[in-house]
């Protein structure tokens, strides 16, 4: 599961739980903004909800921009210098109700960074998933 799908899934679960709360309370615009920024099949619907809840196009654009930045923070981990040569790689991290990844897979990039995957499995993620 890609980080984008995991983030969207997490946002949608939060929105569903919020909607099922008793008594039902309105879903905040930032939840819809995160869902819209994640992309996917419901992105356009979520953008319309953001626009409706924000009250103006400029407020909606601000909410969507903030959500995009927040998702980017969730997707990118900056690590200390590992080797002597510059290198980049893209890893897929699978989380299962934990703040540390259960599985890490090198998807693209410099093969010399493969051992970084083991280090990523011990890294505490700033992303928190709903229970």
Task: Describe what this molecule looks like in 3D.
There is one protein chain. This protein is mainly alpha-helical and 131 residues long. It has 2 domains: 3-75, no CATH class; 78-126, no CATH class. The chain has helices at residues 3-19, 29-38, 43-54, 57-75, 116-120, and strands at residues 89-94, 103-109. The protein has a two-stranded antiparallel ribbon. Strand 1 and strand 2 (103-109) form a beta hairpin. Helix 2 (29-38) runs antiparallel to helix 3, helix 2 crosses helix 4 (57-75) and helix 3 (43-54) packs across helix 4 (57-75). The longest helix has 19 residues, at 57-75. It is elongated and about 50 Å long. It starts with a helix and ends in an 11-residue tail after the last helix.
Helix content: 40-55%
Strand content: 5-15%
Please tell me the overall pLDDT: 76
Main-sheet strand order equals 1-2
Shape: elongated
**What's the gyration radius in Å?**
17 Å
Taken together, the total number of domains comes to 2
Strand tally, please?
2
User: What is the string of SSEs from the N terminus onward?
Assistant: HHHHEEH
Instruction: Tally the helices.
Output: 5
- Main β-sheet description: 2 strands, antiparallel
End-to-end Cα distance: 18 Å
């Amino acid at each position: 599961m890609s980080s984008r799908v995991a983030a969207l899934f997490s946002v949608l679960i939060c929105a569903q739980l919020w909607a099922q709360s008793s008594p039902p309370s309105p879903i905040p615009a930032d939840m819809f903004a995160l869902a819209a920024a994640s992309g996917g099949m419901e992105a356009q619907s979520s953008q319309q909800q953001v626009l409706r809840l924000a009250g103006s196009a400029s407020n909606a654009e601000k909410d969507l921009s903030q959500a995009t930045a927040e998702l980017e923070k969730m997707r990118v981990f900056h690590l200390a210098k590992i080797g002597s040569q510059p290198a980049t790689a893209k890893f897929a991290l699978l989380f299962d109700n934990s703040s540390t990844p259960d599985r890490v897979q090198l998807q693209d990039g410099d093969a010399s960074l493969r051992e970084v995957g083991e280090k990523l499995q011990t890294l505490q993620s700033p992303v928190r998933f709903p229970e």
